[in-house]
Design brief:
With 222 residues, the chain is an alpha+beta fold. The protein has helices spanning 63-76, 111-117, 123-138, 176-185, 190-203, 207-221; strands at residues 12-24, 28-37, 43-50, 84-89, 92-98, 101-102, 105-106, 109-110, 148-153, 156-161. It folds into 2 domains: 9-102, Phosphorylase Kinase, domain 1, CATH 3.30.200; 106-221. It is built from 6 helices and 10 strands. The model has no long low-confidence stretch (mean pLDDT 89). The structure holds adenosine-5'-triphosphate (ATP) and magnesium ion. Magnesium ion binds at residues 26, 146, 163.
């Protein structure tokens, strides 16, 4: 049984956006906030307010329509992600998500940042990231470094798809990221990289992603 969607906008009594900025830049700014569902206690959330000049968010450009579907498809594909919803707040679109923070600071470690620090990933962590890639592909998207982050839990580092902005934009060449992911996860041995790629390819059933993976195969082979 799939988990129920997190929230329907009609059940939201109010949303407050706080002063504290948690991060953001490319597409918007992320603040901590509070969300209250009717009949429930208010709880802490992260709220992304989009920059005003985003082309794909302009009226008629389709972005606003795509977000809810993107989130729903990722959720159905079992992608590990914060509970997340796209809604209107004070006449502007926002993404509200389950807050991963401690002491007012985000616990989310962007992959693009940790990559430079070269954390040693154990086998389980590598598997989890690979599994998340497969799930994103099976939701019909190409996993990018932007979309994914790591959170430290008792189980070790766990991947989280915290940023879906690229998926709500018209698709463009994101396949390079698959090659980059594999080089990062299997730095030592190119044969392991090819093996991991073959494993991903075998598990991906979404037609659009299968097409994308054909391009990746060419990149890996050249
Ligand atoms: N649910 C969340 N819980 C805690 N922190 C979050 C959450 N969502 C986002 N953040 C924080 O905000 C930062 C930016 O979020 P996001 O990547 O969605 O925005 P962006 O506009 O793409 O910004 P950037 O250019 O930094 O990627 C994250 O790296 C993280 O620190
Ligand atoms: Mg981002």
């Amino acid at each position: 049984m799939p988990e129920k969607p997190w929230l329907a906008a009609k059940n939201v009594e109010w949303l407050k956006v706080g002063e504290r900025k948690l991060g953001g830049d490319s597409c918007g700014d992320v603040y901590s906030g509070k969300l209250k569902f009717r009949g429930k206690k208010a709880f802490a959330v992260a709220v992304k307010r989009f920059h005003d000049n985003l082309r794909w968010m302009a009226p008629g450009a389709g972005g606003v329509e795509r977000y809810p579907r993107v989130i729903e498809n990722l959720r159905k594909a079992g992608v590990p992600m914060p509970k997340m919803a796209f809604m209107q707040h004070e006449g502007k679109p926002v993404v509200v998500s389950e807050l991963f923070a401690k002491g007012g600071r985000s616990k989310i470690m962007e992959i693009r940042d940790v990559m430079d620090q070269k954390p040693v990933l154990n086998e389980k962590e590598v598997e989890r990231i690979k599994d998340t890639m497969v799930r994103v592909f099976n939701a019909g998207h190409v996993p990018t470094f932007d979309c994914m982050s790591l959170v430290r839990t008792k189980k070790g580092l766990v991947p989280l798809v915290h940023d879906v902005d690229l998926f709500a934009q018209p698709p463009f060449a994101q396949t390079m990221f698959t090659v980059k992911f594999l080089s990062w996860l299997y730095p030592e041995n190119p044969a392991n990289r090819v093996k991991a790629f073959e494993d991903i390819k075998r598990r991906v059933t979404h037609p659009a992603s299968q097409e994308a993976l054909k391009m990746v195969k060419k990149m890996i082979e050249t």
